[in-house]
Request: fold
Amino acid sequence: MQDDEIDLRELFSVIWQGKWLVIAITAVFAIGSVVFAIMQPNIYKSEALLAPAAEEQGGGLSALASQFGGLASLAGVNLGAKGGTDKTQLAIEVLKSRQFTSDFIQKHNILADLMAAEKWDRDTDKLIYDEDAYNEATNTWVREVKAPLKPEPSMQEAYKVFSKIIAVNKDKESGMVTISVEHLSPTVAEQWVTWLIEDINKVMKERDVAEANRSSEFLNKQIALTNVADIKAILYKLVEEQAKTIMFAEVRDEYVFNTIDPALAPEEKDKPKRALICVLGTMLGGMLGVMFVLIRHFMRKE
Reply:
């Protein structure tokens, strides 16, 4: 116990003797963290709260499956035991997919805003691009990269960047979905969230309508080939359900997600947390200063 007290006293004595070095190192890190924090651009986050749309078109198929599933299987038609997959989860996975992201970037022509934006001018509400990467006047990419990369970013590069600034979260209890986008411009962040909601609803609608049309075409062929009255009745019911699916899709713009709280252009930045950066930088400098003084002391002692 006495040895421990002596060691602690020695440590405090060493730190006290090297206090000016500790203060100097801490000051350097403090100043560096302040400069670093100031140089970081403001990032704004816009988000929207969505509710899964009701799947009314699934009920008819479920009823048919329970009533005529066995008979339909004799005709080679599988009605399925359930009303279908979780359309909300499917839409979320599509939203996160490379294909959807690539189509989204190309459709809205946002590659420059995503890959070359350097800062945002609040007064004009316009983005300022990195001149070493993108020439806004000629609408050309001028960045210098090594093969296989090209001056104009590929969709694979764009997907990696886009996936870092977008977040799609589903609450397990309520089922509500939140879509958020982070960007230098609050206006751009709001616009992208709005576009994402519109596009995913449109994509999922088109997928279901195309599938229903293909199913109707197949079922009509089966009706023409079937002579059994009961099976024909089932097939007609199935055709009717596909027609309902198409009608349901056509009359609703918010096909998969209903907007509960739409996206807004945020007035306050989401990050960086400059005060936190400064505090952590100063603390790191202090700890490194103490460690340096102690290590130097024990190396001389040996």
In short: The longest strand covers residues 44-52. Residues 186-225 form the longest helix (40 residues).
